[in-house]
Amino acid sequence: MTMFALNEGLDLDALRAAFARDGRLQIVDFLRHDAAMALLRAMVESKAWRLAVSAGQQLNDYDLAELEAWPAERLAALERQVVEGGRAGFQFRYDTIRLPGYPGAADGAEAPPAVRGFVEFLSQAPALDFLRALTGMDDVSFADGHATRYRPGHFLTAHDDLNEGMGRRAAYVMNVTPQWRPDWGGILQFYDERGNVERGFVPAFNVLNIFRVPQPHSVTWVTPLATAPRHAVTGWLRVAA
Predict the structure, then answer these.
(1) Predicted confidence band of residue 109 (pLDDT cuts 50, 70, 90)
(2) pTM to 2 decimal places
(3) 3-state secondary structure (DSSP) of residue 239
(4) Residue 81 domain-assigned (yes or no)
(5) Residue 69 domain-assigned?
(6) In 3D, which of 187, 195, 135 has the Cα closest to residue 160?
(7) Domain CATH for 206
(8) Which end of the chain has the smaller Cβ count within 10 Å, N or C?
(9) Does 103 sit behind a cis peptide bond, omega within 30 degrees of 0 on the bond before it?
(10) Closest CA to 221 of 179, 188, 175, 176
(11) What's the rounded Cα separation, in Å, for the pair 111 and 125?
């Protein structure tokens, strides 16, 4: 969509040096303000959200209206599955809108045009050229992505994004969350080999988080203190298979 444009004030040389040094980066004011607002508005107004929950290697997406009609016993069983799965392995729970071509996606007909447009924007010049120059990854040929919404009780346990055959070179999180407090959770955290937290990125508005794959990271549990959801578009810069 033509609404999307990079912020013309970005200092590519400084950003490139920081990414080369750390392998991860926050880019403040990545988009023009009006484009970031349009992306947020599209996600806030969308009715296409579904609850995404992992179950081992299986991905389950649940219709939110149907979940509200589930009996208490069935909801409790799902809660036990989520907690038990996260105690010793990879587990997540958050709301999503998937796009065509993304694993687990349907036809994407209900996805907001602004979300589709943003992912398409990242896959085309000048954004793709900017991201290649920023990361030094000249072989990146496209971006994929999906909308994410974290509410209280949502989380993503530690993992490294490595998936053989997917061609993932870097991961990104395009944050469009206007107000957030660290106490609310939902923090993108990075870990060293001993499990110590090396860095944490708090949700913010119009901030692109980008980092090399693989590296251990998680999204911390969103607490009941949160007064609004954590909205973002999340995906990977990839090489063609």
Answers:
(1) low
(2) 0.94
(3) coil
(4) no
(5) no
(6) 195
(7) 2.60.120.620
(8) C
(9) no
(10) 188
(11) 23
Give CA–CA dist 192/206, Å, rounded: 27
The secondary structure element, H or E, covering residue 83 is helix 72-88
Pick 113 or 106 by higher pLDDT. 113
Mean pLDDT in residue range 46-55: 93
- Look at residue 228 and tell me if it is in a domain: yes
User: pLDDT by residue (tens digit) across 195-218?
Assistant: 999 999 999 999 999 999 999 999
Cα 69 from Cα 199, distance rounded (Å): 40
- DSSP bridge partners of 54: 59
The answer to whether residue 159 sits within a structural domain is yes
Which tokens sit at 47?
A: 């009715």
> Residue 28 sits in which domain range?
12-46+112-238
Whether 222 and 150 have beta carbons less than 8 Å apart is answered as yes
User: Domains in the chain: how many in total?
Assistant: 1
Question: Residue 74: its pLDDT value, please?
Answer: 96
Listed residue (123, 115, 213, 139) closest to 171, CA to CA: 213
What are the residues whose beta carbons fall under 8 Å from the beta carbon of 149, sequence distance 6 or more?
43, 49, 94, 95, 96, 229, 230, 231
170 in Cβ contact with 140 (< 8 Å): yes
Looking at residue 196, what is its pLDDT? 97
More confident residue, 102 or 121: 121
Q: For the residues 220-231, what does the mean pLDDT come to?
A: 98
